[in-house]
Design goal:
Layout lengths: L21 E4 L5 H9 L3 E4 L6 H7 L5 E4 L7 H6 L5 E4 L9 H6 L4 E2 L6 H17 L1 H9 L17 E5 L3 H12 L3 E5 L11 E2 L3 H7 L2 E4 L13 H6 L4 E5 L8 H9 L3 E6 L14 H4 L3 H6 L3 E3 L8 H21 L24 E8 L4 H9 L3 E10 L2 E9 L3 H12 L4 E7 L1
Parallel strand pairs: 1-2, 1-3, 3-4, 4-5, 6-7, 6-9, 7-8, 9-10, 10-11, 11-12
Antiparallel strand pairs: 13-15, 13-16, 14-15
Helix pairs in contact: 1-13, 5-7
């Protein structure tokens, strides 16, 4: 006899005030993400361009969520103007374009997609290694000028050469596997000890990696300690005739020092996909940002310049759109902060759809003693089905599901929790 099990469907939750949630998506975020948000019933305004700080300050007050990539900067000033904002989605790897501390202090979690474009970036690096080694970027440009320049001088196979990877995270480790398949010897340097993949070997210092590598590729975040981590002294440690590749963050490399190293023929070439400052939209002038050394950079031989396209593949953008849109929808609909980069990670199992009188409390508060006692006093007339809280730095987050709440009690309940002395933001979902 077959035994069947009834699958209890999760209850779809809604904010107590029942205000239509409005989302602003900038920088040409995947249309699949737009459709996913619309399927949840959210109103979506979508733009292919970034916005300046002044533009955001004017517009952000109408929105409950915003999705950006790397060009739009969400500063403390923007966050102060975002009176309705509940969540920020970075549809990319990095989050340095957002003031994470100010966002957390305003009760706004920030989500990103740290792994979805790893393969795209790794494949770009492999293509750049081959292009630099064979100088075919130069040969292709010459052909467009009508010049036939068939030569082998200074052109190399990559088999048997050494690739040095600075930062052995998801991109660096994937790149390591691809590089070995091409016959490259792989070294890597990271601030922590990591298990290498394949035959890759971790070296003890950045200097040791630079001295041994024919190609050096950077995969580190933008932090105070990584700003200009490759400057004049580090470039001098690199092998004569080596190549530098930066698909990480623009401020990691001292550009004037790199220009000098290539002009002196100490380095044989470089590939840059990121820059210390980048235009806010397609078609914007590049020279206006790079100032005095931009023309020198563009005129260097065997230097590949690309407009921050490391993660710009259909596959990567689709996966990023899926991951970040799902994270934002889970927070807006259910309060889950799993995967947030600046916020305590808290989640509760779904409320069953057949439970009509349950209310989910989502309470962001300052991380000070006595908060749970105050909140639980407010909740004491009701049955607390489940509750979980956690903290990160100065911010704490409590989720609780309570039952036997009458419709008349819901607004009073929210007001009482909001009036506790540590309150940052309180949402009730029903």
């Amino acid at each position: 006899m077959a035994i069947g099990f009834a699958i209890r469907q999760p209850k779809v939750l809604h904010p107590v005030d029942n205000e239509d949630l409005r989302l602003l998506l900038l920088e040409n975020i995947s249309q699949e993400a737009v459709r996913a948000f619309q399927a949840h019933g959210f109103h979506v305004d979508h733009s292919a361009k970034a916005m300046s700080e002044d533009e955001l300050v004017q517009k952000i007050g109408s929105y409950h969520a915003i999705g950006i990539r790397s060009k739009t900067k969400i500063t403390e000033r923007v966050i102060k103007a975002a009176t309705k904002l509940l969540v920020i989605g970075c549809f990319c790897i990095g989050t340095n374009q957002v003031d994470l501390r100010a966002a957390a202090g305003s009760g706004i979690p920030v989500f990103n997609s740290p792994f979805s474009n790893s393969r795209s970036v790794a494949e770009l690096v492999i293509s750049e290694i081959i292009a630099l080694s064979r100088q075919y970027f130069e040969r292709g440009w010459e052909m467009r000028q009508g010049i036939w320049n068939k030569q082998s001088k200074g052109c190399w196979e990559i088999r048997g050469k050494t690739l040095g990877i600075v930062g052995y995270g998801h991109i660096g480790s994937q790149l390591s596997v691809l590089a070995e398949a091409f016959g490259l010897r792989v070294l890597f340097h990271d601030v922590i000890n990591l298990m290498p993949l394949g035959q890759a070997r971790q070296v003890e210092s950045l200097q040791a990696l630079l001295q041994q590598s024919d190609f050096v590729t950077l995969h580190v975040p933008e932090l105070p300690e990584t700003t200009n981590m490759i400057s004049k002294a580090e470039l001098a440690h690199m092998k004569k005739g080596a190549y530098l590749i930066n698909n990480a963050r623009g401020k990691v490399v001292d550009i004037p020092a790199l220009v000098e190293a290539i002009q002196s023929k100490h380095l044989a070439g470089a590939a840059l996909d990121v820059f210390p400052a980048e235009p806010g939209s397609n078609g914007a002038p590049f020279d206006d940002l790079l100032n005095s050394w931009s023309s020198a950079l563009r005129q260097l031989p065997n230097v590949i310049l690309t407009p921050h396209i490391g993660g710009s593949t259909e596959e990567a953008q689709r996966m990023i759109g899926d991951e970040v849109s799902s994270a934002l929808a889970r927070y807006l609909n259910y309060g889950s902060t799993l995967g947030a980069v600046n916020f305590p990670e808290v989640d509760l199992r779904a409320i069953s759809a057949d439970v009509a009188s349950n209310v989910r409390v989502c309470h962001v508060h300052n991380n000070i003693p006595g908060v749970l006692r105050q909140v639980n006093e407010v909740l004491s007339p009701y049955n607390v089905e489940k509750q979980y809280s956690d903290s990160k730095g100065d911010v704490a987050y409590l989720m609780a599901d309570i039952s036997n709440v009458s419709p008349q009690d819901v607004n009073r309940l929210r007001e009482q929790i909001s009036q506790t002395n540590a309150n940052i933001l309180t949402r009730l979902l029903v």
